[in-house]
DNA sequence: AGCGCTTACGAAAGCGCTTCCGCTACGATG
DNA sequence: CATCGTAGCGGAAGCGCTTTCGTAAGCGCT
């Protein structure tokens, strides 16, 4: 197949009456070129409909403008929303996005990041909670540091302790808000079905909850299960023996699982038991009963991450903190009178 | 940054005692090389931990093994599930996946495909219904034909009439099954909230429904709205005046919207009105009431599509037809006695 | 044994770009 | 006015791979 037509950088250079080297500097924003010439070259390139060849660029040592996105599992609405935000923003900037799934294991996450870097990808976004496991986090930090040193841009969503720009959901604050909400309703014995305890997200939300609850002298019982609907079901079973009046799912998927398990046990929500979640995924409003949850702006977080990556780096890593919002629906209410 | 360590193809060639050319042929499966030598080279490459450089490959005129995936909107659970299947399978084969969103417009879809091709991507999967708009489909067909002629592999999920391998959900069959289900329950006046009527998926499902319904002499009222939860809400409003006893959402998102709108109008489901959907997205089981739906195996469709593009092409496009399954939950029942 | 044919392999020419290096021309400096 | 430093630009060397093209070796045939 002859891709005859596509203009190359030489064509642009020729048309603009400059050397190939200057044209390259003009297009890819290198230094050592006068603004006038650069502008002229860019105009000519525009006219010719020039599109840089990714592969040539990658080969020649430059970084490719593709954005790599690592999520745990794209089928999870939390990550799907983030991905949607990332792709939307990237697409507006003419950047393409490569997605890799870490399948919720840290080894895989690291492997996926390294695979992305081997492709000389210019920017990488890692979404999802970090792990408390410090040796693994250290390796990741090292990998990313080397990458950014080499001119790569990196950002993380929802994890701290990594030396790159980050978008941080207000997990602790959301926990506090939710804890207060339950305490205000009158709950004094609360259970939480947490995800794996070595996840930062889990630790932060639980700590927030505990803080919000303890002001009112309420107790928190923690059980840990996978961060999924099934995990929620298992957790609900654990907590059913525990004499609590409210169960918190640490994300909406878990909360939905909890709702299902309670329904199976003919326990009414919220009359007999309150159930709340985190995130406010799209369906939270549609389950039965509609779920009270702490909204985390996933889509916007994705967009923020792209914005960070497109901005030139500064010495200190930047952090964008996002807000949370308590969405009170039908699944939370006062504890039973008894 | 010195990426000193990474072995190159020359290194492999040298270590194996063959020429660069032979090594290339051995690795990228070219012809004109004896099986023995090829096997030997591959073994050496393996030992050295050789990883081909995408960009060099792309530059030299080959196609890059990356898989491009075009979906309408990754935030939609239907596409998220497909994407998850695609990424999972691709990852097992060591292929990376680039995702582009068409944002539900045909122009965008075509533009995204062309952007992908410009990157010399070796394989492309287009997910989502095709459009009845024939001129646009013709352009797409032409683009893909040229691509496959140049050695690219393409597959589509859920659309016909394109001259490439395809994975086809049983939309018509699912419609028939659902129509029969409602007819058997006793419904005689059924409404359907359809997506845009120029989508193949919509046409097929509606036709199936009508067929399944008409056997029992039932009538079908069609209204059309965007293929989203909000579209479902709007459609439900339309149909409320229409004296129907069951409303079909053409996908689960719409059905969930319908459920919400009926709840707002204090119409009980399924006592006063049955509601059913299509797809069986993860949350369909958790909404109130749990949604009766026709299950389409999205995740598996994604995997099938990857399998198709990894298989060498044959003259005739292949088709993998998938099954559907009626999942009866709580949202469908007999029509009110009146 | 000699002929042409096929097949396995090596040498070398790029693919389109970035970047190092060197040159020129200018303004600043003493 | 002579000298040095610097900014702007062009020449040219690769980046790692695929792919002609050419050659040598192996085959069956007359």
TrEMBL record, chains A, B:
PROSITE patterns registered for this protein in UniProt: HTH_LACI_2 (PS50932)
HTH lacI-type domain mapped to chain residues: 7-61
Transcription regulation in keyword set: yes
Record-level Gene Ontology MF annotations: DNA-binding transcription factor activity; transcription cis-regulatory region binding
Keyword Secreted found: no
Keywords: DNA-binding, Transcription, Transcription regulation
Coiled coil feature spans: none
A Pfam match: LacI
InterPro entries: HTH_LacI (IPR000843), LacI/GalR-like_sensor (IPR046335), Lambda_DNA-bd_dom_sf (IPR010982), Peripla_BP_I (IPR028082)
PANTHER family: LACI-RELATED TRANSCRIPTIONAL REPRESSOR, LACTOSE OPERON REPRESSOR
Protein name as annotated: LacI family transcriptional regulator
Taxonomy of the source species: Bacteria, Bacillati, Actinomycetota, Actinomycetes, Micrococcales
């Amino acid at each position: 197949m002859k891709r005859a037509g596509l203009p190359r950088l030489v064509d642009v250079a020729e048309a603009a009456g400059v050397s190939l080297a200057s044209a390259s500097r003009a297009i890819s924003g290198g230094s050592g070129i006068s603004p006038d010439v650069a502008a002229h070259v860019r105009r000519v390139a525009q006219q010719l409909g020039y599109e840089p060849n990714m592969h040539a660029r990658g080969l020649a040592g430059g970084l490719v403008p593709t954005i790599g996105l690592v999520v745990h599992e794209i089928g999870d609405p939390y990550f799907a929303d983030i991905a949607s935000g990332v792709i939307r923003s990237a697409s507006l900037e003419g950047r393409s996005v490569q997605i890799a799934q870490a399948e919720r294991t840290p080894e895989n996450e690291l492997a996926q990041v390294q695979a992305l870097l081997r492709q000389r990808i210019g920017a990488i976004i890692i979404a999802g909670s970090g792990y408390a496991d410090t040796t693994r986090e250290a390796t990741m930090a090292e990998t990313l540091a080397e990458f950014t040193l080499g001119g790569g841009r990196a950002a993380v969503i929802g994890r701290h302790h990594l030396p790159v720009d980050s978008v941080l959901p207000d997990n602790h604050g959301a926990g506090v808000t939710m804890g207060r909400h339950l305490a205000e309703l009158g709950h004094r014995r609360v259970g939480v079905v947490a995800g794996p305890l070595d996840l930062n997200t889990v630790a932060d939300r639980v700590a927030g909850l505990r803080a919000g609850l303890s002001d009112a002298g309420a107790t928190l019982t923690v059980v840990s299960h996978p961060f999924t609907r099934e995990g929620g079901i298992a957790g609900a079973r654990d907590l059913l023996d525990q004499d609590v009046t409210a169960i918190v799912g640490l994300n909406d998927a878990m909360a939905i699982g909890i709702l299902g398990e309670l329904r199976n046990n003919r326990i009414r929500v919220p009359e007999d038991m309150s159930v709340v979640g985190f995130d406010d995924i799209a369906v939270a409003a549609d389950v039965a009963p509609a779920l009270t949850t702490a909204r985390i702006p996933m889509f916007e977080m994705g967009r923020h991450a792209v914005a960070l990556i497109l901005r030139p780096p500064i010495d200190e890593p930047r952090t964008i903190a996002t807000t949370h919002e308590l969405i009170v629906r039908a699944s939370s209410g006062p504890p039973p009178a008894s």
